[in-house]
Amino acid sequence: MKSKYVGWIIFILSFIGFLIIENLFTIKPHVTSGNGNLGLLVIIIFSPIFIANYILVFRLVKSSFSNKLTRKSMLIILCISFVILLVLGLLIFNYIKELIIALGGPPTNPESRIYRFGWFNQYTNSMYFNIYTFLFTNILVFNIGILASYIKNNKEKIRD
């Protein structure tokens, strides 16, 4: 019972970490910043929580679908998840494209706000840490858990 609550707490903390990085530690394109990427410290602090979240999602999915997953149900779940991942991928791509336009171009463009900063800086943290990437990565881990559960079930059936 307690592990269920711990899992939810870690999931929520992971979500909050993504929101904090996106909203508090990403400099808006119209603001000038010379302080460096303080978001990197927050990313380092939250990284163990992000990793724990992915591990817990994987384990939960794998154990929840253990011995309950037929080939047909797995394919249905994976197809729906794949469509969701495609939609999220398009949203992420559009988000990044709009951010690059707002910044005046890529780091190689002398007119860009991020000229010579590289792709990971205080202006681009939200490219990697936003609601879309949070959902995308968690659904991807969910799919890996489904596949692992299905493979485990089939190995056990072959042995029997």
Written account of the structure:
With 160 residues, the protein is an all-alpha fold. It is built from five helices and no strands. Helix 1 packs antiparallel against helix 2 and helix 3 runs antiparallel to helix 5. The model has no long low-confidence stretch (mean pLDDT 90).
Q: What are the key terms here?
A:
160 residues, 5 helices, 71% helix, elongated
Would you identify the regions where 5 or more consecutive residues have pLDDT less than 50?
none
User: Helix and strand succession?
Assistant: HHHHH
Q: Name the helicity range.
A: over 70%
Q: Structural class, please? A: mainly alpha
* Beta-strand percent range: under 5%
Report how far the terminal alpha carbons are from each other: 32 Å
Write the layout of secondary structure elements.
Layout: H1 2-23, H2 39-64, H3 71-102, H4 125-128, H5 131-159
Entry summary:
This protein is an all-alpha fold and 160 residues long.
